[in-house]
Specification:
single chain, 488 residues, mainly alpha, 0% strand, disordered N terminus, disordered C terminus, transmembrane, AA-permease/SLC12A_dom
Length: 488
């Protein structure tokens, strides 16, 4: 049974074009760029890291154009499960929705655990539980006030990250040409050892898989479309900017790191959440003579982590609300208060975020890594679902006699785009646990932690299918009518 909100209790369309752009862009800039990029250069060399990130960036571009076509035609706050349910199979939509909620609900806890590690850079003797409580309260408040509060906070969180990357690139270019930080570096580090490519095909594949995690979050624009002031203009505008900005921020940043720091530098391999002193950004700033680099980068990465937690809270809440509206979650989760906030869904999602308190009991780094492994694969499953949903939508659209000119935004390169994204995501999912099989014995603990999301997704999909007796929706029977309440 479908739960319908009363006319005066609906989501508020308060997100402006600038919010949409920053949500899309800010979602892809985080610890993957500030920390993991150094390990990528060390593992595959500067050329291998560039190749892997460029390939994943292209895949993300195709996914975003697919999502853009869907989100402009049918702006839905629970976009992924709604599209999957309408164009593939209601059971597939059910599994997609709960997979996405689980992913971001657990990510809240993971990011809060990471924030407690980062804050101890300045307050090493402080207690993790208090920091977790404080950060969780801030994120909850930003989401509980109005959707505009979320949009504004994400706008400024993203702005901090963007300014940091622009300064980094400027300083890096000045160093490369010898204008700052000593003699010109040029391209010398691209010929160190066996650079630019190091470690062969499997090293590049390993970086390719790590790069996928770095870009997760860009799909949040599909959720935010349901609360955009004008989705048919704002979403395409944000989508168009994503590709070039991903290219600019990721590809140029890795190029600068590879040119300034040789891949043989052992510090590149040690860049993780608990050792900000060896973030590749910190290494470059320190090489340029900026002594406060470590403290500044720690602050930037802290805002990045809180931004991810803030986005996770928003996305998980909206998808849980959408599941309730479609009868795929308890009905009370579909309630919206007078401020346009699905408060019950927000409270349940916040409760899952409380898992971060385990950080104070079992050790910060251990809990962070466990939570990250638990949610890591879910993002790739979501991407597969987006590609499949778009492919089915476009085929259904033409099968039912519609003209492509009717689409407010049309994804280019169809069907190559969604098929390419689908294939690469499947390769990443299959290859994700390759490390578990490299030793003499199979590392079952690593394999289970890596792949646990896959059987969970299949259980949700096939279980719902068996209980509800759902079938794949024939192309000519797919519901292509945009939601009247969302149509702009």
């Amino acid at each position: 049974m479908q739960h319908k909100a009363t006319p005066d209790a609906t989501l508020r369309k308060s997100l402006k074009a600038r919010h949409m752009t920053m949500i899309a862009l800010g979602g892809s800039i985080g610890t993957g760029l500030f920390l993991a990029s150094g390990g990528a250069v060390a593992e595959a060399g500067p050329g291998g890291a560039l190749l892997a990130y460029a390939a994943v960036g292209l895949m993300v571009y195709f996914l975003m154009t697919s999502l853009g076509e869907l989100a402009t035609f049918m702006p839905e706050s629970g976009s992924f499960n709604t599209y999957a349910g309408r164009f593939v199979d209601p059971a597939f939509g059910f599994a997609m929705g709960w997979n996405f909620w689980y992913n971001w609900a657990v990510t809240i806890a993971a990011e809060l655990a990471a924030a407690t590690v980062l804050i101890k850079y300045w307050f090493p003797e402080s207690h993790s539980a208090w920091w977790s409580l404080l950060f969780l309260a801030v994120i909850f408040a930003l989401n509980a006030l109005t959707v505009k509060g979320y949009g504004e906070s994400e706008y400024w969180f993203a702005m901090i990250k963007i300014v940091t990357v622009v300064i980094f690139l400027t300083v890096g270019v000045l160093m490369i040409f010898g204008i700052m930080g000593g003699p010109a570096i040029g391209f010398a580090n691209f010929t160190v050892g066996d650079a630019p490519f190091h470690g062969g095909f499997f090293a590049v594949l390993g970086v390719f898989m790590a790069a996928g995690f770095s870009f997760q979050g860009t799909e949040l624009i599909g959720v935010a479309a349901g609360e955009s002031e004008n989705p048919r203009e704002n979403v395409p505008s944000a989508i168009r900017q994503i590709f070039w900005r991903i290219l600019f921020f990721y590809i140029l940043a890795i190029l600068v790191i590879g040119l300034i720091i040789p891949y043989t530098n052992p510090n590149l391999l040690r860049g993780d959440i608990s050792d900000i002193g060896v973030s590749p950004f910190t290494l470059v700033f320190e090489k340029a003579g900026l002594a406060i680099a470590a403290s500044v980068m720690n602050a930037v990465i802290l805002t990045s982590v809180l931004s991810a937690g803030n986005s996770g809270m928003y996305a998980a809440t909206r998808v849980l609300y959408a599941l309730a509206r479609e009868g795929k979650a308890p009905r009370f989760l579909g309630h919206i208060n007078r401020r346009g906030i699905p408060m019950n869904a927000l409270l349940i999602t916040t409760a899952v975020g409380m898992l971060a308190f385990l950080a104070s009991l079992y050790g910060d780094g251990v809990v962070y890594n466990w939570l990250l492994n638990a949610s890591g694969m879910c993002g790739f499953i979501t991407w597969v679902g987006i590609a499949v949903s778009h492919y089915r939508f476009r085929r259904a659209f033409t099968a039912q006699g519609h003209s492509l000119s009717e689409l407010p935004y049309k994804a280019r390169w169809f069907p190559f785009g969604p098929l390419f994204a689908f294939a690469l995501c499947i390769i990443v999912i299959i290859g994700q646990g390759a490390d578990a099989f490299t030793g003499q014995e199979i590392d079952w603990k690593t394999m289970i932690a890596t792949y646990m999301s896959v059987p969970l997704f299949l259980l949700l999909w096939l279980g719902y299918k068996w209980i509800k007796r759902t079938k794949i929706v024939p192309l000519k029977e797919c519901d292509l009518s945009p939601d009247a309440s969302s149509d702009k």
